[in-house]
Amino acid sequence: MAEDRPGRGGGAGGAGRGGSGGRGSDPRRAGRRGPGRPGPARADGVRRPAPPADPAGLLPRRAALRLLGAVTGDGMLLSDARVAGLLAPLPPEARARALRLASATLRHLDRLDAWIAPRLRRAPPPPVRDALRLAALEIAMGEAAHGAVNAAVTLLGEGSRTAGYKGLANAVLRALAVEGPAGWAALPPARLPAWLREPLVAAWGEEVVCAMERVHEAPPPLDLTARDDPAGLAERLGGRLLPTGSVRLAAGGALTALPGWHEGAFWVQDAAAALPARMLAPRRGERVLDLCAAPGGKTLQLAAAGAEVAALDLSPARLALLRDNLARTGLQARVIEADALEFREGGWDAVLLDAPCSATGTLRRHPDLPHARDGAEIPGLIEAQARLLDHAADLVRPGGRLVFATCSLLPAEGEEQVRALLARRGDLRVEPVLPGGADPSWQTAEGGLRTRPDHWAAEGGLDGFYMVRLCRSGGRDAT
Length: 479
Description:
Largest sheet: 9 strands, mixed
Order of helices and strands: EHHHHHHHHHHEHEEEHEHEHEEHHEHEEE
Structural class: alpha/beta
Helix content: 25-40%
Number of domains: 2
Number of strands: 13
């Protein structure tokens, strides 16, 4: 078990399930050097090779096709380190565009297939299907149709197994180009894959799931948690102060360019993801344990409230992000690298367990997830959550409190998990808590809180979360 004691340092990083992006050099400007001229010299005098000219915009499209294949064919997530390897050779702007194209295609996948399918006699091979999807997306979004069509045909021509489909792609995509954005607008929103849609309909009903799918159509806004002055931060950034205390901005732009970033005035955290720490309501000087803490958004909230926080996680890479965030914000926490189930230090005033889960509540931010997964991992996650819940409860002192949270839309990872916990333990009871600004309709029958993507839909929605606060009356202590 590795451990850092509280301290300050220097660094930068983002917290929460949101992300950041910066602006890189413009490959169009690099291309003006011509093929025979070297790139700019580094400080050591060694010249970098100039990026290849890409007048047709094939670099990001080719990379986007690889990403689509990695997600739908190989089950990789766009956050996977192997995906970063696929993008590494690209100039920064081409890399960013490839990710945008792949993410948008995955967000609208079912809708794109519904647009393309009537023009096909039979399903094409996956690489051809992905090329059609990508070009159809560009047409739907109002990009120059001739560029999208020509690029798709050219990319298919590069492969010996796909070159024979150039004529088909040309015909299908030109037909879509005639319809253009108007034809796209007439289609219903993309439906979730059956492995996820069916249990969601069983839990919430068809009407609610359709409402979620409508919210999933648009990229989410950017939510921030302020270190100490949410109203001032909202005014400074031109954002909206949400009723629950988060600051909401329109998505887009470089996170690190926002005023206050470098001095640690805020961190990225979906408004729903900020609620579990507010439900815990830490008091100054309390000893609070944040289990499964990285990348640290909730740790920062607890520390900002004045608690004496220990943040535990098993992943060294994710803990590095947590340390960066502590350094950037100037907040303090004890950082522990360990398996949560092996951690035995008990007697905590409060424990926050944001347990590993299916993450099905975060599809607004991760449109790749439903196409990279098939639900096979969920039974194992449910078992792990039950073990973590029992262990977390053992770490709480008698009279202390435990907040359990998951970013899942599945009751089996939320409400049902808590009912089972209460049935097997007599030393826990639910403390119904409605964090300030939360809608009373979000409260569940057992006294927990449930957010869904269709909540606050007109304002951009929320991640799907379940959370509940429990009080320990006595019983077993960890040894």
